[in-house]
Every structure is written in structure tokens, then in C-alpha cells.
Amino acid sequence: MSCWIQWNLCEYVVTVEPDTLNRTVVVNVVINQDYKPEYDNEKSPEYKEFVGNFTKKMETYYTEKKIENFKGVVVTSVSPGAPAVRFSDKTLKKVKLFKLIFSFVSNQRIDINNCSILFQRRLPSEVYYRITPGANSVSVTHDVVLAIPNNASSNIIYDEDVKAVQDAVVGLMNCSVSDCVYNITTPPVVDKTEADLRGFCERVVDDAGIIKFYEIANVSGVITCVTVCSSLHTKTKQCYNKGMCRVYSNVGALCHCINQDSTWYLGDDCSLPISRTGFYIGISLTLGFLLLSVGGLTVFLLLNKRKQKMKEDIKNQQVNQWMTEDLEWSRSNSSDFKVNAGGLRNPSFTQDESDQEDLGSRCTAPFYALTSPSLDPDSRGFSGSD
Known about the structure:
Number of strands: 12
Strand order of the largest sheet: 4-5-3-6
Distance between the termini: 155 Å
């Protein structure tokens, strides 16, 4: 029931509201006819023949009685009834004559009670008592199927049809075979039934692919098969932001959201809408901010790295210069600087004049202190003799 064309669903299912509802009237009649043992077997030819004849005759009978909304007859049970009775042909003729006279008296508005007593006295007793016992009769239970209009007045229409069915089967009592289809010897039993809605949607929809999405609902007296998109369903599929719910065969319920060209929906029920224009603007601004941030950070890192590189290069240059340059330390020739370090001088050291020692204040060491002691023992004033 559904198909795909370029990834689009082409058909969807909707609420089903049938025009009529099938309702039944259970009727039991006891036919003045011999019951055959073969009727016990539903597969026997005799049973099938009897049921077929009964169904055909009773459908014709109900149709002639002009029962409104009559649809058909379904035999549900065939069983033995009470012993059947047989009227003799002479008795049947007298009964017909009695009925004719009784009808005439009724039309002439004569006291029926007195007339009936009069006729009872004058008619032979065989009219009432001359019967012969026979075999068991046939008890047949059948459903009279009615197609009741599916509207708010369906129950009233059904009750009227039940009354019409009851009047029709009562007319079969004590009638001859020539007058009606069957002669019944006991009052018929007519029972109403409640509307059987089990499997109703299965019969109406008749599609296994979508029947699981349906459920029966009473809409103002009208029996309807609603889908999960209906608010009357027990498991309603809710669509937000004016979304439309549709059920597809073998797929399920889907929400069709509005303005899909300009709006995105994060939820499958048309919830959490996002404007495409706003989304693009937001993404653009976010990307722009990120690019500017990354660019600024990159420039800062490059400049900082370059600065650190310059400092490192200068330091390395100074160290290399100190390590490789041939530095000369010249001896000082000035008269005021008598003490030197072997003629070498640190060019990077500057002597403060205040730190210079006053040469005039120095004491000259004695000459003997400056002369190396003689190793000659004679020169020391010592003699070698005692």
C-alpha cells in the first residue's frame, strides 16, 4: 500500500470509517422434519445438503419479509429436537378451513371468543388431537446477519430489525409446508447480540502491513478504525510545531514538519527546530571568532619566539666573542702604578683612583731586608774555632 519514489513515500494510510457494521441475531427454530443421524457429522453430504437448503430457503424467506438491512444467514448448529408430529392430509384441510372462517369472522368484527368456542364445538376433535408421533425433529440455530448503518442511531436500527426477524420466524409456527418454507412446532428463540468488534479493523482494513497501526474507537457513536496519528488512539504519535502525522505501510508513523526548506528539526517529532539562516550565521560568527583567535595566538607566539631567539643570539654572540677573541693585557708604563701583575692588565677592570694607595705613605723596606742573606759563615760573625 506504500511505495518509495526518489526516497519519498507516495502513499499513506488514514482513518477508516465503514458505512455499515455487521451485527447478528441468534435464532433457534425446531423444524417439523425428521432428524437424520448423518447430521451429526458436519462433513457428511447429508449435513451439507441440509444446511445448504436451509440457508437458501431462509434467506429467501427473510428477503420476502422485507427485513431492512438483512444480509444473510449462517447456520451455527444442527441438533435433534423434540419428537416431530405429522398431521394427516384430512386434518390439514380442516385446519385451513378453520383459519379461513376465523379470518372472515375477524374481518366482520364478530365476537371472536364466542365464534372460536362455536367452531371448537362443531369441528371434529381430529383437528386438534389427531396427530401421530414421529422421529426427532431438527433443531437449527442460525445467525441472521444484519448490515446496520454505522451512525449514532445504529442501536435503534438494530432493535427494529430484531423485532422484524422475530415476527418473521413466529410466522413459521403451525404453517403447512405449502404455505411457508418450514413448519416449526415450538416457539422460536430470538436473541440479540452485542456488537462484536474483535477483528473489526482487520476485516475492514484487510492489509497485514498496516493493521498493527490501527485501533477501534467510538467517535460520537460511529465505530471507527483510527491510526496512531489520531488523538483517540491509546498510543498517539505526537507531532509538535504544527507537524503532520502520517502512517505508512511497513514503515510506521512519521511526522512531516513544516518549512523544512528553511528549518531543521533535531527531533523526529518536529521538536527542537533550528533556523537554517540563524544556524549559518552562528556558525560563520563562531568560525570567524575561532580564526581570529587562532591567528592572534599564532602571531603572539611567533613574535615571542622571535624575541627569545634574538636574545639567545645576542647572548651566544657575546659568549663566542669572549671565547674566540685574542685579548691583549698590556703592562702599565705609568709612574704612578708601580705594582702590576706581570705587565698584564684586565681591560674590563677600571681602577678607581680613590682606591689607589698613596705611594709616599709607603715605607721603604731596609736594605738588608732587600738583600739576600749570605751563606758564608764568616760573614755572619761566626768563627769556626771555639
